Amino acid sequence: MRNFLQGVLVTLTAAATVMATTWFIVLPRFDWGANQDPGVVEETLANDSLRRWVRSHTDSSPNPFAPTAENLKAAGLEYKEHCAACHGLDGSGRNRFEAHFYPPVPKLTGDALKLSDAEIYFIIANGIAYTAMPAFSKNHSADDIWRLVLWVRHLGNLSPQEKADITREMQSEGEEHEKTMSHSPK
């Protein structure tokens, strides 16, 4: 019994030494900057974990709002106010900050459209820790969040006129940004 306890103590001491070495010596040497893209392994593990987390906490609630012109107008304004700065007016993930996010800001016109309405709702309502995705449920009504889901779905089906309007607005914002940046003190 005494040898067993000594073995356990040695094992625990070795494990604590490895953990302390990793914590204080190895981890600070990693590049924690946001100016890079996640590696393949990190991206695969993170996306899989996120997908399983969302699916395990999401019910199958349908969106209570139909994509009527009135609802889409309200949804578009809500999106522009709260989401477009990061995800881009067109859902492309091109943010207004001209900054590199780590992990990158998701495009809302690609794989995001494979999510159910309830899954998109869950992500908007709860946010995602350790990303720039905030939780909106504390300060926004469920109705506002469901309308945002409508707009996210609509981004993949914009009419030619809507695309033209958004492109024009994005160009105008870009020009305004350039003008502001060229006049800022250096």
What does this structure look like?
It is a single chain. The protein is an all-alpha fold and 186 residues long. It has one domain (31-183): Cytochrome Bc1 Complex, Chain D, domain 2 (Orthogonal Bundle), CATH 1.10.760.10. Helices cover 59% and strands 0% of the residues. The chain is built from seven helices and no strands. The chain has helices spanning 2-26, 40-57, 69-82, 84-87, 117-126, 142-155, 160-183. Helix 3 (69-82) packs across helix 6 (142-155) and helix 5 (117-126) crosses helix 6 (142-155). The protein starts with a helix and ends with a helix.
Could you name the ranges where pLDDT drops below 50 across 5 or more consecutive residues?
none
CATH class: Mainly Alpha
Helical content, roughly?
Answer: 55-70%
SSE topology string: HHHHHHH
What does the largest sheet look like? none
Beta strand %: under 5%
The overall pLDDT, averaged over residues, is 91
Structural class comes to mainly alpha
Note the overall shape. Answer: extended
Radius of gyration: 22 Å
Second CATH tier, the architecture: Orthogonal Bundle
CATH fold naming: Cytochrome Bc1 Complex, Chain D, domain 2
Q: How many helices? A: 7
Give the name of the CATH superfamily: Cytochrome c-like domain
Strands, count: 0
Distance between the termini: 72 Å
Provide the number of structural domains.
Answer: 1
